[in-house]
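Dear colleagues,

As part of the handover before I leave the project, I'm documenting each prediction I ran so the next person doesn't have to rerun anything. This entry is a single chain, and its sequence is reproduced below.
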Amino acid sequence: MLIEDEAILGDINRESIISILRSTVISNPSISNMVLYGKNNRFYYFGGYLSEDFYNELDKYRIDDQFCGENVWIGRQNDILCRSTQQTQNEVFTSVSIMKDFINNEKLGYVIVNLKTQTIDDVLKNIYTGPDEKLLLVDGNKELLSSSDGLDAHVYEQDFKNHLNFSGDSGIYVEKIGWENVQIAYYRNEKTNWYIVSWIPLSSITSNTNLLSMTIIFSTVFLLFVLLVASLFFANKISDDFKQLLDFAQTFGPESDQINDFIKRKDEIGTLYNTLHELMEKNYEQKQIEEMACLKAYQAQIAPHFLYNTLDSINWMLIENEEYTISNIVVALGGLLRYSISNDGNLKTVADELEQIKNYLLIQQVRFGDRLKYSIDIDTAIHQQLIIKLLLQPLVENAVVHGIENTVGLKTIVITGRREGNDIVFSVEDNGAGIPERLLLELNESLKNEVTAFSSRHGLQNVHQRIRLAYSGPYGLTIESVYQKGTRVMIRIPYNPCLNTSEQ
């Protein structure tokens, strides 16, 4: 279970072991003291001084290997440690468990934990009993360990012990004692081989039968629970503390500064927590850097590869030749290009985005003529809200290219935008070709999983990725469509009054 071998102790000094013993005893008020007894007769203890009785009764603590991994309860006895060299020992409940090297499974010694008798005494006292009822805790030899009313050992020997007849793990019988019939119920705990005994006069039972049942059930279950939890807690806590210390020594070496930090920690997992916390902070910072790089990369994909100055020159030539219709188209195209290649920030107002949508639709109306109509209904209250650049134009372009381009007849694009609670929702809807149902499902799934799977819809996925990178939360792009009837693409982003230039 633990350590005491000379080779291992070379890496861990005596002060380190006693420090852990001290921490365990101080943090558990129910523990009186602890002793580590190694196979080479080396002792480490905290909570007093070893008495002569301990050295004279060492065989008592050498439990069999079959109990490895378990606590063996010896019973109630004089404490093997004294608070001073002159003080008489107090009584304690003693448990012993085997220490083993967790690497080669070699037995190294024993861990002795002395539990304050007050802990068990208080458990029995806190269980409700009637004025004539008693709860006794006795060992396999019928020696009194504790009682609900602090029964004197001499009185127990004289008036109670001879009336206890244990035949099996549990039972109930009636014994005539003096002029009174007494019902005696008992139950044996397998781990400790101790008996919890309920001693109740029949007169009390007839006056309060229900109370008897509840007392037996509650006392039995509660005491079993306390003993089981205490046994598991002591074994696991002591084992885990020493294993963590050995792991640290083997990982970082005996001269490592980390060992001193481990010994000084405030609790058993303090060092591990601090290390994980630092790693998480570094990982978060790296993720932020990667996300910003992705954001810039997505925006770079949108930048056009044309020169605005060339278009400006063409525009002046058209004006000189009074080609005003073509000039308007060139001006609109120039505005789009200038907006795309500008380096004046990644945030633009909704009004700026609308201006570029109008420029784009002006160019497309020249191309499609009377076949293309559009309407724009954006709430003026959000016109000055700052949003990420080129958020809406790709949606309008998608409606033209995939919804209208390969169709006939009059087609309409409806662009809306308004505030909904703490969000802003934009919608671009067309009555064009629509999207087949299977393709629509695959496209929405790719957006949900943030996977770029459709090169033909790259613009939509690009916008969705930029929204996910720019805004934390349930924001992004969704698509609704009916094949041969039309498509609606919606964007949801957060409303932030701090980014509304009209409120600054």
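Residues 123 and 222 are 9 Å apart (CA to CA). The radius of gyration is 41 Å.

All the best with the project,
I.
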